[in-house]
Design brief:
Radius of gyration: 23 Å
Number of helices: 10
Largest sheet: none
Distance between the termini: 79 Å
Number of strands: 0
Structural class: mainly alpha
Helix content: over 70%
C-alpha cells in the first residue's frame, strides 16, 4: 500500500469523504443519494492503515458539529408550527444521514472507535445530535407542540407521534417536561386515571379522533379502503 502523509490525507483522502458526508447531511428524509460507498470505504481504510485514525475521527465529528450548529441557528429563528415541523424534519434528516455515514466509516469504527475508544460510532454521532439539537431546543419545541395540539388541525397527528416517540426513545425523562402531551402517544406515562379525570381524557380522545379524520394521510387511507370495497365483486346466489 502506498504511504500517505498527513498532508496527503488532507489533499487526497479527506476531501472526497468530506464532500460525501456533507451531501448525506443535507439530503431530505426518504431520499438516498448515489454515492460510491466502496470508494469512500477505501479512503477510510487507507487513512486508518496510514495511522490517521484519530485525524479522520476528529474531522468527521467536527464536520457533523459544524452542520448541526448551522441547523441549530436556523431553529432559533423559528416559532410555532414552523419550529416543530423543521425540528422534526431535521431530526429525521440527520438520523438518516448517520445511518448512511456509519457504514462508510465502518473500518474506523471497528479498529479505532471500538478498540481504542471503547465506544461505538453510531452512538457517538447520535449523542452529538441529541446534545446539539434535541437537548437545546426540546423545551421550546414541546411547548409549541403542546400549544398547537390544543388547537383544531394544528399539527399532523402522525408526525407528532413520530416526534414524541423519537424524543422518548432518546431520553425518557423528556416526558416530564409535558407529561400529558407524551401520554397522548406513549402508554403508561401518567399515573392511573382517577374518576374525576375521565371527562378530560374523553375530550382529548375526541379531539385526536377529529384530527385523524381530517388529516390527509387518513383521508388517503380511507379513500383507498372505499375503492377496494367498491371494486369487490358481488357474488350472486
Amino acid at each position: 500500500m502506498d504511504k500517505f502523509s498527513e498532508e496527503d490525507y488532507r489533499k487526497q483522502l479527506w476531501p472526497p469523504l468530506e464532500e460525501a458526508v456533507k451531501m448525506l447531511l443535507v439530503q431530505q428524509p426518504g431520499v438516498y443519494l448515489k454515492i460510491s460507498y466502496e470508494e469512500m470505504y477505501r479512503h477510510v481504510y487507507t487513512s486508518v492503515c496510514n495511522q490517521h485514525s484519530a485525524l479522520i475521527y476528529a474531522d468527521l465529528l467536527s464536520l457533523l458539529c459544524e452542520q448541526l450548529a448551522k441547523f441549530s441557528d436556523d431553529l432559533e429563528t423559528l416559532t410555532g408550527a414552523n419550529l416543530v415541523e423543521n425540528f422534526h424534519t431535521g431530526l429525521k434528516r440527520f438520523t438518516q444521514a448517520i445511518g448512511c455515514i456509519v457504514p462508510i466509516f465502518a473500518y474506523l469504527n471497528r479498529t479505532y472507535v471500538t478498540l481504542q475508544r471503547k465506544s461505538d460510532l453510531k452512538r457517538e454521532l447520535s449523542a452529538i445530535l441529541n446534545t446539539t439539537i434535541v437537548e437545546k431546543h426540546v423545551h421550546r419545541v414541546l411547548s409549541e407542540l403542546d400549544s398547537i395540539q390544543s388547537q383544531p388541525f394544528g399539527f399532523n397527528p402522525s408526525a407528532a407521534a413520530d416526534l414524541i416517540s423519537y424524543l422518548y426513545d432518546a431520553r425518557p425523562d423528556f416526558a416530564r417536561i409535558h407529561p400529558h402531551l407524551f401520554a397522548k402517544f406513549i402508554p403508561n406515562i401518567l399515573p392511573p386515571t382517577r374518576e374525576d379525570e375521565l371527562p378530560m381524557y374523553i375530550k382529548e380522545t375526541q379531539q385526536m379522533q377529529l384530527e385523524l379524520l381530517t388529516s390527509q394521510e387518513f383521508k388517503r387511507f380511507d379513500s383507498g379502503r372505499k375503492r377496494g370495497l367498491d371494486d369487490t365483486p358481488v357474488v350472486k346466489r
